[in-house]
Predict the structure.
Amino acid sequence: MDLVRCQLQAILIVCLTLAAAGPAFGQADACNIKRDVRTGTLDEVTWKQLNSAYEDVGEERYDEAYESLRKLLARAGRDRYLQAILNQALAQVEWSRGNYDPALQYFEKAVEIDALPNQTHFALMYQIAQLYFMKERYDEALDRLDLWFCTVPNEKVTSAAYVLKASIHARQEDFPAVLEAIDAAIAMDEDPKEPWYQLELAAHYELEQYPQAAETLEVLISKWPDKKLYWVQLSQIYYRLKQDERALAVLALAYRKGLLDKQSDLTYLSSLYSNASVYYKAAEVLEQGIRNGVVQPGKLHWTLVADAWYAAEELEKSLAAYEEAGRLADDGLTDLRRGYILVDLERWPAVLETLNRALEKGGLNEQQSGEAYLLRGMAQFNLGDFDSASMDWGRAGRYEKSREAARQWLNHLEEERRRRAS
């Protein structure tokens, strides 16, 4: 799951950015807290002083702004509305100059005073939850967000806070809660964002809920059909669920759309075709990938191509692929496999050439060595070189697995000699 976790980290960053747009769907009547606050007013002198401090902030004169606001707060007396405004302003100054912990304290104080208008008060509560999330203080972020859910009127909310809540739960690795929150956000929004579905998908992966993950990927593909990753992931999930036909159909469609552009994509598709016994397509996809420079033209890949062409009964194409593989092989096994096909086609000079190369390269086990001598002996016999054939079958007789076949061929050779002598 390491890849899923890495993807989750990136998704959370995007989700947090989207959630910063504003609050989300309220959670509830069960914790609904009514708020009834009379908004205060500022006299003209205080308003001008406060405006001057904001101008300092705009010019990045944070120290001057901070000192002005602190002096105003010291003179605020029992004016709770002014105290709340000044704490909010001080929080913004501290945040601007990178003092995040003091900024949170001032924001918290502004909310605690409970004297600001509803719109400002609720926005501050939500902002506090976001700031705790950014500070990686997830328990506090969730506490503040839940309090916001219980306080803000439902008619004022959007889906963004549920996205924030899902992101917090993801950091806490509470994936059932992630799904509850992100599903709520998706359900209530007319245009759910791509990272929301990605977060839902990651949670399903973490919980090993693969059928549900497949459903999410189907939605992602329907909305963002040019994203290769979703096609590949959906195919892999179907394969995991032992729905091989669906796995192949999804990836084959992605291939036809021109989305598969990596070696791993094409080797996976080729293997799915082979598993479904569609060997012609298995060979075609992989060979085309090699010739297009997407798949590395190594011994392994050419051998896979050759095997698939052979299974598809395309012997000429199989021979050509084995020839490519043989050039790159350090041992004689690939040439031996090519030799089997040439024997079937009774191309005896080519058999002799190929088996000579296989035995010269070596690297064959006992069984393979015995078979190589048997096949080379057959080529020599059919080319009329009885002495060489006899020698090779004699060598094949040294190996247990080929001993009986070698004996039979030697008997056949003697019969042929007698026939010709008579």
Summary: The mean pLDDT is 90. The radius of gyration is 37 Å.
